[in-house]
Amino acid sequence: MSGGKLSINGACVIGIVSLSGIGASFLIAVFLLTRNLTVVGLGLLFLLLVFICIALFVAFLRRKLVLFSDSLCKTIDNMLEGVSAPPQVCEEESLFYKVNHRLVRLYEAMRENRERIGKERADLQELISDISHQVKTPVSNLKMVNATLIEQPMPEEKRQEFLGAANNQLEKLDFLMQAMIKTSRLETGVISLDRKLQPLYDTLAAALGGILLNAEKKMIQVSVDCAPDILLAHDKKWTSEALFNILDNAVKYTPAGGTVRVSVQSWELYVKIDIMDNGKGIAESRQGMIFRRFYREKEVHDVEGIGIGLYLAREIITMQDGYIKVTSAAGCGSTFSVFLPRDISVRIEC
User: Fold this and answer.
1) Is the CB of residue 244 less than 8 Å from the CB of residue 251?
2) How far is CA 199 from CA 206, 232, 323, in A?
3) Are 27 and 37 in contact (CB under 8 A)?
4) How many CB atoms sit inside 10 A of residue 184's CB?
5) Domain spans of the chain, in order of start
6) Mean pLDDT by 10 residues, the chain (350 residues)
7) CATH class of the domain comprising 196-349
């Protein structure tokens, strides 16, 4: 029988037999040397006392091991069911302190993992619900337009009008899907931002290029104050996406003939990008909600959009250790301040 497969009871039996053999051999040797039964009797008494002490110690140790194994099994069962944490052992010299310490660490890791899985499940459920809600309207409109085109004869001019409406709904669906793909890829870590030291001016110019046409249509004056020599460690593509989403909102909610101003300040630890408009503004009670996914105020449902731009912008900026601050009041315009951290080590080298 190998040592790895030997049970505790088996080890005890082997130990008792071995000690009995040794004791018997010792008594025989004493008798042969002394030929004195009194000495042999005293030796036998001494061996009995030793055996009793050993038996009591083994029984005590076995009892402790049984209690510990029962406690360990119960603790692990409670950990698996999430009922309770392992009891704290304060005596660092305890025989079982190391095991208990690792059980506590294991329990904490399991609890954090359980909470993370629960959060991911809740986020996924919320995401599915949001997508279902957002897709429902354009799909219903497409079905209605398609049914009208199939079932009812109409002049070519009217047919082209319906086809244009269907195309608008398809573009909305495509925009929604693209926005959701970007968001999910960022949230799941499929895309990792590549922060490189590069001019912020070029990134801002790329973002502005996407809104100038709409600003021109509404005769909105866009002004920019950004020094071309400001270097910042950032991901150009995704930072441009975040700034575009904020600028796009500024143009959408600024009335015709209004202004949108962009100002960049280089501070010691951060670069601050202010995007200011003189649009409808945001009530203070709603400023904490505007970064939620698919959130849109009731008053602007007639304005094109799905309410994911600011959410995506915040995710991108946060992933670069930055943050966004909003200053606004109803009817007084809004200022979105984007703070991106400067890479101190890179700045010193420059």
Assistant:
1) no
2) 12, 6, 19
3) no
4) 13
5) 3-84, 109-187, 196-349
6) 60 74 76 75 79 81 77 74 61 62 77 80 71 74 84 84 83 76 70 85 92 90 92 91 91 90 92 92 80 65 63 89 89 90 52
7) alpha beta
Query: Rounded to whole angstroms, what are the CA distances from 23 to 57, 104, 310?
Result: 18, 46, 86
CA–chain centroid gap for 117, Å, is 10
CA distance 240 to 230: 15
Closest CA to 137 of 163, 162, 172: 172
Q: What is the residue type of 276?
A: M
Indicate the pTM of the whole model.
0.57
Residues 338/327, Cβ–Cβ less than 8 Å: no
Check if the beta carbon of residue 284 is closer than 8 Å to that of residue 334: no
Q: Which residue has the tokens 């070519």?
A: 156
pLDDT at 349: 36
> What is the pairing mode between strands 196-199 and 231-234?
antiparallel
> Which residues, at least 6 apart from 208, have a Cβ–Cβ distance to it below 8 Å?
222, 224, 247, 262
Tens of pLDDT, residues 262-319: 999 999 889 999 999 998 888 887 777 888 776 665 555 454 556 678 888 998 999 8
CATH architecture of 109-187: Orthogonal Bundle (1.10)
Whether the Cβ atoms of residue 232 and residue 342 lie closer than 8 Å to each other = yes
**Cα–Cα distances in Å, from 156 out to 145, 153, 162, 191?**
15, 9, 10, 46
